[in-house]
Amino acid sequence: MSLTLDQGVPEGLAWRAGRVLDVASAWLSAIAALVLAGLMVLVVSGFVLRYAFSSSIMGAEAAGIWLNVAIVGLGAPLALNSTLAMRLDVFQRLLPRHVRLGADMVAEAMTLLSGLVIAHGSYTVTRIVGGTNAGLGLPEWIPFALFALGGGLVVLFTVLKLIADGRIATLVVALALAAFAFWLAGSGIRIETGLPKSLILGLIVVVGLVVAAPLPHAFIAGAFLVVPFGSPLPEPAILNSAVSGIMKFLLLAIPFFLLTGTLLARSGVATRLIEFAGALVGHMRGGLAQTTLLTNVFFSGASGSSIASAAFGAATFQPELERHGYPPAKAGAIIAATSVLDNVIPPSIAFLILAMATNLSVGQLLVGGLWGGLVMAVALFVVIRLTCRDAPVSAPAAGGTRWRLALRAVPAFGLGLIVVFGIRLGLVTTTEAAAMAALYTFGLSVWFGVGARGLVAAFRQSATEAAAIALLIASAAPFAFLLAVDDISGLIGDLAAFFGQGPVAALLVSAIILFLVGLVLDIGAAILLFGPLLLPIATAAGIDPIVFGVIMVVNLMIGGLTPPFGVLVFVVGGVTGVPTAHLFRAVLPHVAGLTVALFAISLFALVWAAIA
């Protein structure tokens, strides 16, 4: 059989590659789920020992961090084709077929190059790093070895996927491009451009976004490709920076919050929230849409992830909204817009990342996010009332029915006590609160009859999603380092000075930058890169850092609804099958309402700065 463009793989070879890929994925996800379960037991045990026995587990914090790195290594290949891979395919779909094929080759080459860099660079670091961890008595190179494993698996899974899909030409060209780039960066050849290294990296990342490469792998490949242009970060330093970026105990809360949201949905408690929300607002104008909104307000206290909420809402509410007469695009827009609340109302993964990047108080950020999220919810409530005038409504629920449904939803509200009040009162750390919330929803799932298969599936899904988010955090660390080296914060300060002195100028410059960044970057990457740059400018202008943190997250969450990235729109479109172009048009009124909410929060920041 002759080999033509992306054709010619023998059926038997393609089938075997697909079979190996399926088996390897199943085993990896099972091991990652087991590691996540062990991580939860470790953190909860430490909490119990501290309060019940005034004792602790030696090396527990280091063990937890290393287990989290293991989840990243195991889950990185599994996340390649998930929603959280963060592939921006809107541009690629607009290209002619032959150009799209070339873009696909470049995208796969960047993924392969990233995997090679992660594997080789991490292995190099294992040979450099010495010493033994005092708490665990194990060599300090182990986390880097786990990360190297993830890079090797990314390469293996990419190759198997291309063979299984019959894309042999793409595989050959992508391997050739990745091999050439790997040689070039390590050859010692230097290219002088006079441009800041962070700008070159940014341009490479933009190319990766345009060709639909996974965003974390575009970051890693880009950081490596800047080496010939005089980057101060050689390959080992890139990987040392990346792994160090995720070796923080606070980040262990992310997989636990993801697990909490997944278990809440599987246990049926989320359905009880929907029923209670419907009893409260279902009789109002746009009743089912308002129910979607209020459910997101309630569900925000569990998942902490807008992407998880968007996927859940698309699967749960889209069919019902369409059945009640809502056009598909309008229904999807409502789901996407209301899901922004999950990254603002606590617990919020976005605020966890912001706290890690800027050393702000997690507890204060969560309280600020609660008020900011409620302002956004009011804005969305008004938009729904104005845009859903002809939508059918349900009959008002009787008082007794509302109380009965409220009691049925009580188990879900217990999460707020564990998370927000536990952290705010200093009873538990953020990671412990997240682990206790996960354990609580695990108990609810068992109580409400979720079987072993459903529980295992929840742990598998959460481990994969956590790996994708952690990989993004790791991959953004080298970029953040180059931004600091190039003194981008000084340039931003000069820009703020151009607009004038004071909090108004600081907020205006921040709004412009965050809006532009939010158009193309995921919120996690944007926070990691620009949070440390913008926060000092805001605080120097007299703006409360916590309030500015809320403004930053709200601003970037609006970017989750706007083209070209609009990750929440893409998630809803992927689940429902509604074209994203239609969703982007339908979501415009909600974007306008959220912008008004952002303006109101910013006005509060200005008033607070004036009287402080």
UniProtKB/TrEMBL annotation:
Pfam families: DctM (PF06808), DctQ (PF04290). Keywords: Cell inner membrane, Cell membrane, Membrane, Transmembrane, Transmembrane helix, Transport. Residues 39-163 form the Tripartite ATP-independent periplasmic transporters DctQ component domain. It comes from the Bacteria. It is a multi-pass membrane protein. It is found in: Cell inner membrane. GO terms for cellular component: plasma membrane. Residues 204-604 form the TRAP C4-dicarboxylate transport system permease DctM subunit domain. InterPro entries: DctM, DctQ, TRAP_DctM. The keyword Iron does not apply. The chain crosses the membrane at residues 26-53, 65-86, 106-129, 141-160, 166-186, 198-226, 246-265, 362-384, 405-427, 433-459, 466-485, 505-530, 564-584, 591-611. One of its GO terms (molecular function) is transmembrane transporter activity. Part of the tripartite ATP-independent periplasmic (TRAP) transport system. This is Tripartite ATP-independent transporter DctM subunit.
